Amino acid sequence: MNPFEQYKSLLGQAAPLATRYLPGSEAIIAEWQTRVDAQKIHIMLFGAYNAGKSTLINALVGREVARHGDVPTTDTVDFHEWDGHVLLDTPGVNAPIEHEAISLAQLERADLIVFVLRQEDQDASDIMGRIFDLLEQKRPLFIVLNYEDGDPARIEAIQARFTHTLTTYAQRRGFDTASLAAVPTILMNVKSACRARLENKAVLLEHSRFDVFMLRFREWLVQYDSQKQLLQQMYAGLERSLLQPVSASIDREAPPQGDMQAVDAQIGHITREYRLLTNAASSKIRTELMLRRPTISDTIAQGGTSDAVLAALTQVGEAVSEIVQNWLQQELKHNVKGRIGAALAADGLEFPQGDDANGSEFGNKILDAALQGMKGVNKDHVKSLLEFGRKLKIPGLKGRWSKTLGSWANKAAPVIQVVAVLAEVGVEYYGEERDIQTKQDRALQRGQWIEEACSQLYSSLMQSVTDVIAHVQLEELQPVEARRDELRAKSGGLDQDRSDWAALTTAFQNVAF
Predict the structure, then answer these.
(1) What is the spatial distance between Cα 275 and Cα 270, in angstroms, rounded to a whole number?
(2) Is residue 144 within 8 Å of 115, Cβ to Cβ?
(3) In what residue span(s) does the G domain sit (predicted)?
(4) pTM for the whole structure
(5) Which is more confidently placed, 299 or 223?
(6) Bridge partners, 86 (sequence order)
(7) Residue 395 pairs with which residues in a beta bridge?
(8) pLDDT at 357 over 80
(9) What CATH number matches the domain at 42-224, 3.40.250.10, 3.40.50.300, 3.20.20.80, 3.20.20.140?
(10) CB 221 within 8 A of CB 229
(11) Could you give the C-alpha distances from 204 to 60, 151, 391, in angstroms and in order?
């Protein structure tokens, strides 16, 4: 099932419990279901009530769609379509208290945040405090400093002053000042930009620095403009606006206690750690491929036969695969359980003990076989080993895993399969390159092809890694989930609700491409 369809299904399952414990959850769930259907990034304009948020939306859209003025005009959340995304115009902070509450509630559900502040507010402690609250929460943030000084020579001085202000507040808050460099901050005369867009005045548009803003803004959006990133942003919003509030509400009615709490915590820590491992593996593969981009570039620059390109790209893919395989083996066999154990110990809990009397040695063998499959192990050997484990009734290979044995085996040697296709594309590309007239076109096509090669190799390797991690996670979770089912059958209504909500939270966490 498509991940977004899984989200819709889970939201439907969550509704009865959520409405019982969280007032207003019907509207929250309805909004998320609509967003899942639309699959668009929600970009919230945030800041003081007259900082220029609505004016910036009008500049982006290119027509008057948002109300604006010197006094609070926005008392609801307004949604505006823009370039395949949704811009959220919200009441400002430091506005009437009921307006601010609307903004803060919507902030929990927003994917990305554009913080707009006026030049005269850059020293205001409440405004800076809100910026650093968002930074410390690791929310995706783009800052627009709306200046009104018409002298272009003053821009550099304004920028230097604001940089100093950010650094000063970072030091006060104990925030890593080096990470501030990654937060895009653009100075723009928002009012002039809006006027230039509405009246189509190119000189005024450049003078307002709208072109500088758009260049950096689009670069920033690219980081999040994919279905995978959108899914991650949606989960973060669901966690803030629905999953955590319902869980806290249940706990307020009756504090968690006993074995059921321990089992739910064990499942939560195991699921979280393996999700973090998957994310770390993704970063590891991307980093290794990035280091080999020059090699890939040299490979396609040399051209040659399909076999030559295939051999060169296979070396690249297998080199990355071997590095990732060794790293993943270390993580799975030695590090992950230690991190789960430490997290559980911090909660006063022990690592769950499963029934692995005859499965431990086999578990290592099947893990080794799965890891070797990343480099091209014989698929018949993998399948026979999987079937052997099923006959021994090894936990994780019994029942639900029987359907996946063949598909697991067929994923052997993914790197070879991918580079064979890339080799054909590469040879064809160099056949066509003779007809291209300009160096710019050749460089662009070569860059696009390198990007495609890295993307395909990444997808192939990541699929193998995800399969291995999913297998090990299943092995860890199966005995704990069995224990939860046993306890749930004996527990009261509130404990059952708490456990059911914990299971739903875990299900949301496990949704992925």
Answers:
(1) 9
(2) yes
(3) 43-146
(4) 0.67
(5) 223
(6) 42, 81
(7) none
(8) no
(9) 3.40.50.300
(10) no
(11) 15, 13, 75
